[in-house]
Write a structure and sequence with these properties.
- Pfam families: GerE, Response_reg.
- The chain is of the alpha/beta class.
- It folds into 2 domains: 146 residues, Rossmann fold (3-Layer(aba) Sandwich); 65 residues, Winged helix-like DNA-binding domain superfamily/Winged helix DNA-binding domain (Arc Repressor Mutant, subunit A, Orthogonal Bundle).
- 51% of the residues lie in helices and 14% in strands.
- It has 10 helices and 7 strands.
- Strands 2-1-3-4-5 form a 5-stranded parallel sheet, sandwiched between helices. Strands 6-7 form a two-stranded antiparallel sheet.
- A hairpin with a 2-residue loop joins strand 6 and strand 7.
- It is elongated and about 70 Å long.
- The protein starts with 8 loop residues before the first strand and ends with a helix.
- The model has no long low-confidence stretch (mean pLDDT 91).
């Protein structure tokens, strides 16, 4: 994914344990001289600020899942919600099954146990080159761009997920128009209108057209 064969990789770390941070700062560049630890943090809030700052933005951030101020999941979610530029690798001293699903949903590109330093260093290289570690058990970790888009869509108001035509049809339905009148107004077939209604209900997870209309009214308040 990223052609960084000859360039150095700026790695950032966040872990509430000072001993672990010191160990990782020494071990990572020792095992791969191309990896530079550009900064480390013990607080998740600091890691979020520094990871999003263009001056201190790393090429990859390793975050422990068990932090004291906020969770590692929250660190991943907040960074991924705001940018696709920083790949995220979750690390944990516990079983990765404990956090894998939540880390993936929060936008991380993989998760590994932090006790295995060789695997950790190899995983950094894989993510920087290919964008993701891929499957972890039955959990699929996607690249940062895809994860960012997913979180952006999940943050959207449900009505905003509809296409312009679907929004227009739902608005007219909510205002009391019948599908046949909507078809005449938009110069499209009644079958096309009904297809749009089926699609918009599916996008809104609405069990009926009335429920979809109620969601429209709630959005307008």
């Amino acid at each position: 994914m990223n052609d960084r064969q000859d360039s150095r990789i700026r790695v950032a770390l966040v872990d509430n344990d000072a001993f672990t941070l010191d160990m990782l700062k020494m071990a990572i560049p020792r095992r791969n001289p191309r990896l530079d630890v550009c900064w480390s943090a013990r607080r998740g809030a600091d890691a979020i600020d520094w990871a999003l700052d263009p001056v201190t933005m790393p090429d990859i951030l390793l975050t422990d899942m068990s932090l004291e101020d906020i969770s590692g999941v929250s660190v991943c979610r907040e960074i991924r919600r705001r940018t696709e530029r920083v790949p995220l690798l979750a690390i944990t001293a516990f079983s990765i099954d404990r956090y894998a699903n939540r880390a993936a949903e929060a936008g991380a590109q993989g998760i590994i146990p932090k006790v295995n330093l060789n695997e950790l260093v190899d995983s950094i290289d894989v993510i920087v080159k290919h964008g993701t570690l891929g499957m972890c058990g039955n959990i699929d970790f996607v690249d940062a761009k895809t994860a960012h888009q997913r979180l952006a869509e999940s943050d959207m108001c449900p009505i905003q997920r509809l296409s312009p035509t679907e929004q227009q049809i739902l608005t007219l339905l909510a205002q009391g128009m019948e599908p046949r009148n909507i078809a005449d107004m938009l110069s499209i077939g009644i079958g096309t209108v009904k297809t749009h209604i089926i699609r918009l209900r599916k996008k809104l997870n609405a069990r009926s057209t009335k429920e979809a209309m109620a969601m429209w009214w709630n959005n307008e308040r």
